[in-house]
């Protein structure tokens, strides 16, 4: 800890939706200093973080930058680690996650909070393909074996997916909303921009209470049909569900995904996994995040807060599916 008495937390992917939320919550608490890692200190998101009081450090968030990673974690008390979206067949996410954790430990970081997901490979006995879940679980397994205090947060499906990656199609006066989930299947969803920070702030505020835990971060448990209804109610627009829960449906609404067939396999694998096995393991504490952040937005509150009316929104990040 520094002479200021405020612990220093390194936030990787600090301009991401999750990272921005974490950096903002830590800084706004007035109890932490933040070192924000980004590839581009000149982006508007990075400049916003600097204005809020974050120290900005430029680091390539990709494998094999051991020296830069070690520098980035020097004299930090804690680290929030996230991995950016990586399209299959790249194995970079797994490599990057392990290397970030190793670098944090080598630099003497006291507590790692990693944004993890469930092990789909294991839970589905190898029948579902969702490497961006399984690789995060394998990174978490690696972190468990390191000599460092650790906690995992596990974000639900993002509300923002519908705005950023799977935007509706406008057809006359109707808003057609394609979902990769079946119309009446209820799944956990969350706003990464406002819910990640309060959860991670809670962990760093009381680290001993959360040692080794894997904590879901949930804003709502809701079906696409209910999301479409809420959208109509809030916006006054006519809206209809469209199925992207099949290869044909997905490629009808998002033909660009066909450029990488493994991406299509992964989206369908992830959706089938959620339907058949549940997004989270049965023993996860689904109430934890709401208990520490009672104001977490449900879908309807998210719609009212963002005033979203069905247009495609860029959050200024990578612009990839995830
Ligand atoms: N979408 C979902 O429903 C969902 C649910 C749970 C978990 N997740 C996971 O959440 C992660 C994404 O989080 P997010 O949506 O908060 O991130 P995001 O908004 O897409 O931002 C990713 C950030 O990573 C940095 N970055 C560094 N190297 C990158 C690269 N090669 N490609 C893209 N970005 C790179 C970028 O910041 P700079 O340019 O400033 O370096 C960017 O701001 C993924 O691992 C995904 O699997 C997603």
Automatic annotation (TrEMBL):
Gene3D superfamilies: NAD(P)-binding Rossmann-like Domain, UDP-galactose 4-epimerase, domain 1. The keyword NADP applies. The keyword Phosphoprotein does not apply. Keywords: NADP. Residues 7-303 form the NmrA-like domain. Pfam families: NmrA. Belongs to the NmrA-type oxidoreductase family. This is NmrA/HSCARG family protein.
């Amino acid at each position: 800890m520094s002479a200021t008495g405020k612990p220093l937390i390194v936030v990787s992917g600090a301009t991401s939706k999750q990272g921005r939320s974490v950096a903002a919550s830590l800084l706004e608490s007035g109890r932490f200093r933040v070192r924000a890692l980004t590839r581009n200190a000149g982006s508007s998101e990075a400049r916003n973080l600097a204005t809020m009081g974050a120290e900005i450090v430029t680091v390539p968030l990709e494998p094999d930058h051991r020296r830069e990673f070690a520098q980035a974690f020097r004299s930090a008390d804690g680290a929030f680690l996230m991995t950016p979206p990586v399209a299959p067949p790249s194995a970079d996410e797994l490599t990057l996650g392990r290397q970030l954790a190793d670098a944090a430990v080598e630099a003497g970081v006291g507590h790692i909070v990693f944004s993890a997901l469930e092990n789909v490979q294991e839970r589905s006995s190898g029948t579902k393909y969702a490497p961006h879940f399984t690789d995060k679980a394998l990174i978490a397994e690696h972190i468990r074996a390191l000599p460092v205090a650790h906690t995992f947060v596990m974000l639900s499906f993002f509300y923002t997916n519908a705005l950023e990656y799977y935007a509706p199609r406008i057809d006359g006066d109707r808003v057609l909303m394609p979902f990769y989930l079946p119309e009446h299947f209820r799944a956990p969803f969350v706003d990464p921009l406002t819910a990640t920070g309060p959860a991670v702030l809670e962990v760093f505020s009381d680290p001993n209470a959360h040692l080794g835990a894997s904590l879901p971060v949930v804003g709502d448990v809701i079906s696409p049909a209910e999301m479409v209804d809420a959208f109509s109610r809030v916006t006054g627009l006519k809206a209809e569900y469209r199925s992207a829960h099949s290869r044909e449906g997905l490629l009808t609404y998002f033909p660009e995904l066909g450029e990488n067939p493994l991406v299509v396999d992964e989206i369908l694998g992830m959706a089938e996994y959620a339907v058949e096995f549940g997004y989270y393991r049965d023993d996860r504490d689904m109430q934890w995040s709401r208990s520490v952040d009672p104001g977490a937005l449900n879908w309807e509150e998210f719609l009212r807060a963002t005033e979203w009316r069905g247009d495609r929104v860029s959050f200024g990040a990578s612009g990839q599916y995830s």
